[in-house]
Design a protein that fits this description.
Blueprint: E1 7-15, H1 18-29, E2 34-40, E3 44-48, E4 59-61, E5 68-70, E6 74-80, H2 86-101, E7 109-110, E8 117-119, E9 122-132, E10 135-143, H3 148-151, E11 163-164, H4 176-191, E12 193-196
Parallel strand pairs: 1-2, 1-12, 3-4, 9-11
Antiparallel strand pairs: 2-6, 3-5, 6-10, 7-8, 8-9, 9-10
């Protein structure tokens, strides 16, 4: 069966206020195109709305998952895609992140029971999506070099016995730009075709 190419509009948002990003996401979710967005944010705790009452210090957002932390050392990868099959889409996202981590001499694995990527009991990436009207929103957070002292004030995703770690904490020195470049190539390969755009207007 011939593979069908997938046109994805790519944009690196750089560092963007998280609430400003949420507004942008709501604009893009109304469109019919596929968007892959890279971003970083100032330090912030967020939580899925279903668990918001348990974490009053965190910003509630309409995604899956529990409480987590982002900052300038966290690479956010947002997928605003047309989705026919959420499980098939999620499998491709997971495969992309798995291939990215295979670049490093670390034993990183995906845990189906508590979705995310781990080194032993240390979480190094989280996945949190929402699907509505055939569209995906939110995405993946990859711990390049976040402030782990701040992050570990919580249990990542409210998981008992789990701590946050990062590539830097595990001895991997990779810049945010290098991580973006590598991950974009991988997602291109997994999702077939990405078209760069200079503007989202």
């Amino acid at each position: 069966m011939e593979k069908q190419s997938l046109k994805i509009n790519f944009k690196d948002l750089g560092k963007i206020n998280y609430k400003k990003f949420l507004a942008l996401q709501e604009e893009l979710i109304q469109k019919k195109e596929n968007y892959l967005l890279f971003a970083t944010h100032s330090p912030i705790f967020t939580v899925g709305k279903n668990e918001a009452e348990n974490f009053p210090f965190a910003l509630p957002v309409d995604r899956g998952g529990s409480v987590t932390y982002f900052d300038e050392g966290t690479l956010m990868v947002y997928f605003i895609f047309n989705i026919k099959s959420p499980p098939f889409f999620y499998k491709k996202v997971r495969r992309s992140i798995s291939i990215f981590f295979k670049n490093f001499p670390l034993e990183i694995f995906y845990d189906r029971e508590k979705p995310g990527f781990y080194i032993q009991n240390r979480k190094i990436a989280s996945l949190g999506f929402r699907y509505e009207n055939g569209r995906s929103k939110h995405g993946v957070s990859i711990h390049i070099n976040p402030n782990l002292d701040e992050f570990n004030k919580i249990n990542p995703c409210n998981l008992s016995g789990i701590k946050a770690t990062s590539l830097y904490n595990e001895g991997i020195r990779i810049s945010m730009d290098e991580a973006k470049k590598t991950l974009k190539k991988i997602i291109n390969k997994v999702f077939y075709e990405t078209e760069s755009i200079s503007s989202l207007n």
